[in-house]
Amino acid sequence: TSRVANENIDATVTVSIGATKFSKVYDNATQLMVDGDYAGAAELFDSIASYEDSSSLSMYCKANLLAEQGNYDDAIAAFEFFGDYKDCKYLVVYYSACKLEAEAEENPEKYMEAAEKFKSISLFRDSSARAEACKQKLYGVASLWLFREDYQTAFSYFRLLNGFSDSTEKMKECKYGMAGIQLNEGNYASAISIFAELGDYRDSSDLLEKAQKLSNLKVDHAFLLLDRGYNDIHVYGDAVFYLGDIDDEWVASTPNYFY
Known about the structure:
The chain has about 260 residues and is mainly α. It has twelve helices and two strands; from the N terminus they run αααααααααααββα.
C-alpha cells in the first residue's frame, strides 16, 4: 500500500512539474503573441500543441503572420474559418481593408473602399488612423492630377472624398479648369453650363458672360455664311461645322468659329 501511494505521489509530482513547464511556455508564447512576434509565438505554441488551446493559438498566430507578409487572401480565409474565435471577425474586416489599400496603388478609387472598412471597425487597432490615411492618399492622388491639369480625373477623385479636407473646394477648381478648356476650344455651350453652375467662384460670372457672347457671335457668323451661299455650314446649338473648302478670305480669317 505504501509503495502504491508513493508511486501515485511521484506521478502527481511529475504531472505537476510537466504542467508547470507547459504553463510557462504557454505564458511566454502568449506574451510573444501580444508583442506581435507571431513567428516566435507560433513556434512555442507548436512545442506544446496538446496543452490547452495552444494548437488553435498557433494557427491564429500563423494567420496573422501571413497577413503581415501581405498574403491577405490566405490570412482572411483562415480568420473566416475561426469564426468567433478571439478577434477574428474584426481581423477579417481589418485585413480586407489592408488588401484594398494595397490594391489602391494601382486603382486609387479603392482608397475610399478601404477607408470605409477601416471606419467600420474604428476602435480596433489603428483602424481610425488608417481610414484617415487612406483618404489622405486619395487626396494626394487627386491633387497630382489637378497639378497636371487633368481636371476630369482630378474631379472624379475629389468627388469620391465626399467633403474630406477641402475636396469640395478643389472640385470647384477642377470644374473651373474644365470650363476654361471648353471656352478656349470653342465649346461654348459646355463652358456656359459649367460657369453658370460655378456661380460667383473666382471670375466665373465674367467668363460666363464672355462665353455667352462668343456663342451668340459664333452662331450669327454661321447664319451670315449661310446667307452668303456657304451651304456646307451646319449649326447644332452653338456648334458650327463648315465642311466645304475655305476659299473665302473672311472664312479663312475666322477659323475659331468652326469645327
